[in-house]
Amino acid sequence: MKWNDRFRLLFCGAQGKAWLVCVCTLLTYTLVMGTMLSFGAWFLRLEREFGTNSTFIGWIGSVTYGLLCLASPLSTPLFLRFGHRKVALCGVVLCSASLLTTSFVPHIAYMFVTYSLLYGLGANFVFNSSINLVGAHFQHKYRSLACCLASTGFAFGTLVMNPVTEAILSAVGLRNTYRILAAMLLVNGVLCCSTFVPPPDGNSDTTSDDSQHHNHEGRTLAKPSDTEHITATEKLMGQKNNTPEFEGQTSSVTNSTSTKEGKENKKSHFQGVFRRNVWTNPGFLLWILANVVLSLSLLFPFFHLVKYMTTLGIPEKRGVIVASVAGFAELAGRVLCGVLGDNLPFPMAYLFPAAALIMAVDTFSCLLITTFTGMIIYALVIGLCTAVISCLVYVVNSELFGLENVDSTWPFSIGSQGLGGVIGPVIAGAIYDRTGAYSTLFYVGGGLLSLSSALLLVAIWLRNAMPLTEVTSSDSGHLSENIVIGDDRYNTPLITEKVTTV
């Protein structure tokens, strides 16, 4: 093969387009999520501009982060109905409009609508539709690498947008910074989201831009022994098709069926997200509870880390360095998860309880640390474990409950983490206000992390005992039996229908 043919195959073929979607998702996250996660840079400016307290401003940021996850049950039916690209573009427009309108608000209370609501919904539309599209392009091979690579936009965006936002704020002020970021986000988002094409093999889950997957699902694989039955059936159907009466009956039945399916299809997108068999499965229910408990404690150390270090006699500037180390460790952890995730000798689901337990031990040990070097080690461990929990949610959810159920399980898996992310800081603040001691905060945080580790293990055990789906594949079924290591898992045919003799 010539070099120009290899180049064309790499960048213009299906695999090249899939990786392009992954990279553009990363670039979109860098601005959209980076702007949201750099909210700390706005704190002092908002206090000076509106003369309000830090608690009120903190709620604005917390609600935004909560909607990033909690709005997934809303955005999932939308991209199933209209396609990933349209919903992602809508999210970009919402985020840009949010920043633009926020630059004109006369009172900070309006920001709960202009920023928290609009930006939170927009960020969710971008995040949920794009990460599902990446998962649709990489359903088996390189799935961990692709999803983790895309999710590094969160950590990379935080590291990049914090200094960028601070520099723009110092140069042009608060309101003009919102306007500049609105323009940057819109241009970057539109260019990147325009590359969000559905998988050419029809493995996408949408019905508008990605409608080809219905034809793919209709294909069946038969055993060699069934060939005679198929041939006989085809001959009989061929004879009937030659008669005019049968042709008229067939066309009328087909038209009426397609019309009925078209009417029911719109409802099915919303109803399919809320399935009864999902919400009656004990393993899934405990998985949701475990994620809420985990996310409650996930943010405990970070909200008071720098201030806690000042009580140990460590200067505030060094405390900021420790927080930055945690951010770099999370970025490195996301990349590491992507590189090693597809090559682990055990199911990735077990990484969740392991990471939670390590974080619990690290949080408890923080009470014994009194030096700057010790806090650096603490931050490294916390950052790496946070990366595992943050970037593998989609992959582990698919592994536990199957890709065929991802539309009804994933929105609530990420939503449970968002719920804990909103409530967690409130609980942390209430504990500190009531006790006035940081030690209590770390005891509670370590205890919740230990509890979440145990709940996650029980959830995996329940899911193995009572699986959500009977399909046995590399993505569903019993973890110890159905997850196959090696290349065989990518080429296993699935018999979806049995052809009977007519």
Could you describe the largest sheet, including whether it forms a barrel?
A: none
Integer count of domains: 2
**Low-confidence runs of at least 5 consecutive residues:** 203-263, 470-502
| CATH topological fold name of the largest domain | Growth Hormone, Chain: A
Membrane topology: Multi-pass membrane protein
Subcellular location: Membrane
Organism: Branchiostoma floridae
GO molecular function: monocarboxylic acid transmembrane transporter activity
Give a topology summary.
Elements: H1 3-12, H2 14-37, H3 43-50, H4 54-70, H5 72-82, H6 84-102, H7 111-137, H8 143-172, H9 174-193, H10 213-218, H11 227-241, H12 244-271, H13 276-279, H14 282-298, H15 300-303, H16 305-311, H17 316-340, H18 351-365, H19 372-391, H20 393-401, H21 406-435, H22 438-465, H23 479-482
Helix pairs in contact: 1-2, 2-7, 2-8, 2-9, 4-7, 4-21, 5-6, 5-7, 5-21, 6-7, 6-9, 7-8, 8-9, 8-17, 14-21, 14-22, 16-17, 17-19, 18-19, 18-22, 20-21
Structure description:
The chain is mostly helical. It folds into two domains: 1-197, MFS general substrate transporter like domains (Growth Hormone, Chain: A, Up-down Bundle), CATH 1.20.1250; 270-502, Up-down Bundle (Growth Hormone, Chain: A). Helix content is 75%, strand content 0%. The protein is built from 23 helices and no strands. The chain has helices at 3-12, 14-37, 43-50, 54-70, 72-82, 84-102, 111-137, 143-172, 174-193, 213-218, 227-241, 244-271, 276-279, 282-298, 300-303, 305-311, 316-340, 351-365, 372-391, 393-401, 406-435, 438-465, 479-482. The longest helix has 30 residues, at 143-172. It is globular and about 50 Å long. The model is unreliable at 203-263 and 470-502 (pLDDT under 50).
